[in-house]
Amino acid sequence: MSFTLATWNINSVRLREPLVLRLLQEESPDILCLQECKSPVDKIPVEGFRALGYTHMIARGQKGYNGVAILSKLPIEDAGDRDFAALGHARHIAGRLENGVTIHNFYVPAGGDKPDREINVKFGQKLDYLTEMRDWFHGEKPEKAILVGDLNIAPREDDVWDHKKLLKIVSHTPIEVDHLGAVQDAGGWVDVTRQDIPEGNLYSWWSYRSPDWDAADKGRRLDHVWATPDISNAAHGSRVLRHVRGYDQPSDHAPVLATFDL
Predict the structure, then answer these.
(1) Domain of 26: which CATH number?
(2) What's the total number of domains in the chain?
(3) Alpha helices of the chain — where are they, by DSSP H?
(4) pLDDT tier at 63 (50, 70, 90 boundaries)?
(5) φ/ψ (deg, to 5) at 213
């Protein structure tokens, strides 16, 4: 069984429904994991997705904030969710394919502007969220699993446009990178994107604040595809669809894709 999976922070699935439809038509991934849907589940515009063959959806939503969804051409069953750090946010959902592969879709908190939990509650929440992810994967070692989503951390020096300038900027601070590394180590997760594209600057997010984001290219790789060691060698064909950031009224994130032969 071969399938292609895409992950994309859509920044409002209702506002950007035409962009989702365009991506599904142009790329036709078998599975699309969305984050920051900003919609109750019953308000997600599923009719157009179904018309393109995405007849399966599992999701967790809330009005105006957060929200995660998995759209699939393949049968997929709801495998539950967890409320990490007891935030009461729709930030995680898991689905299980018929071949037994579990897909975890995450939207890790952004963490606010100041990388100091003493003065910024949101930064503390982000670290606590990551710590609970780590503890969960320590306690329940994942197998035959894929983890995707907007993890809101660019861990490597070449995952940001300027390593030194971003060391004190939320998403690339050493404490965040350490926390994400602990999550990865706890589950034995393999960074599929960097397994396929091991060298060079690679970004999936460009700020709205930059009027010419493409020329400035001050990006960060915040969106990730990981897999457990038992299936990571089955992954290939990783891509970041940079051009999607240039769609009309785009999300500030670009989709990240990988193919799995399982």
Answers:
(1) 3.60.10.10
(2) 1
(3) 17-27, 46-51, 121-139, 174-187, 192-196, 213-216, 229-232
(4) very high
(5) -60, -35
Side-chain half-sphere CA neighbours of 107 within 13 A = 28
Contacts of 51 (CB under 8 A, 6+ apart): none
Contact between 233 and 144 (Cβ < 8 Å): no
Distance of CA 3 to the CA centre of its chain: 18
Q: Which domain holds residue 233?
A: 2-261
- Which one, of 101, 52, 58, lies nearest residue 77 by Cα? 58
Q: How buried is residue 70: exposed, middle or buried, by Cβ count under 10 Å (0-12/13-18/19+)?
A: buried
For 13, 172, 256, the CA distances from 155, given in Å and listed in that order, are: 27, 6, 16
Q: What φ, ψ does residue 193 adopt, rounded to 5°?
A: -60, -45
Tell whether the model's pLDDT for residue 155 goes beyond 90.
Answer: yes
Report the pLDDT value the prediction gives residue 149, as an integer from 0 to 100.
Answer: 98
> pLDDT by residue (tens digit) across 187-222?
999 999 999 999 999 999 999 998 899 999 999 999
Element housing 223 (H / E):
strand 223-227
DSSP code of residue 121:
H
Question: For residue 211, what pLDDT is reported?
Answer: 82
**Confidence tier at 84 by pLDDT (50, 70, 90):** very high
Look up the pTM and report it: 0.98
Residue 166, both tokens: 């971003």
**Amino acid at site 177:** V
